[in-house]
Design brief:
seven-stranded mixed β-sheet, alpha/beta, binds guanosine-5'-triphosphate, binds magnesium ion
Length: 217
Amino acid sequence: MTALPFPLADAPEPDAAERGRKLFAGPIEFLKGVVAMDGLPPDDRVEICFAGRSNVGKSSLINALTNRKGLARASNTPGRTQEINYFTLGDGHYLVDLPGYGYAEAPVKIVARWQSLLKTYLAGRASLRRAFVLIDARHGVKPVDEEIMSLLDGAAVTFEAVLTKADKIKPKDRERVLAQVRQSLARHPAAFPEILLTSSETGEGLATLRAVVAGLA
Ligand code: GTP
Ligand code: MG
């Protein structure tokens, strides 16, 4: 098997970057927290979601992208986001902050409930345009990530890998983790053929991610 290259995304062209900047500088509002599939809002917008292991930085990334610190609640406690949180961005997008999968500091029964909702959502939301699967740049793809990526393959939901916490990885470890991520993505037909490298701390990669989202309109 020849592995696809899965390059790191190039910096956006100036007009694409500007569209992304404008989109994320515009109005963004928390719409609702959903706890069951029948609570999902009407599928009348371009919908993108942020999925990933507990604590990988999903909520922080939404805050950083939108430059609004307390918008999505971020925390040191894995398992902080426990509902499917919908945000409206401009008048054409939904941004969706998902509960983390894998380890969570919450009662087993509650965790089981939100994990099952998460999977039903990822596989069953027809209007989901792209899932961003966040992966800690220090740790690479873990078995639980593989499980979610396979679920997205099965549902034919295109997903794009976003490495988070780029500020925490040493240059000498970066290529090794990238190689591991590439090897994993090459096994997933629903993987979009590029990787984003981001830091919510330094802002690295955020303009690129904003441009990708704006480009989905
Ligand atoms: P759950 O909702 O529990 O699934 O977690 P989450 O994926 O939403 O993670 P969250 O955004 O709450 O961040 C978890 C921790 O990682 C927090 O302490 C953040 O401050 C930290 N963090 C998130 N992004 C970054 C980053 O880019 N760099 C660094 N250094 N820390 C980050
Ligand atoms: Mg969260």
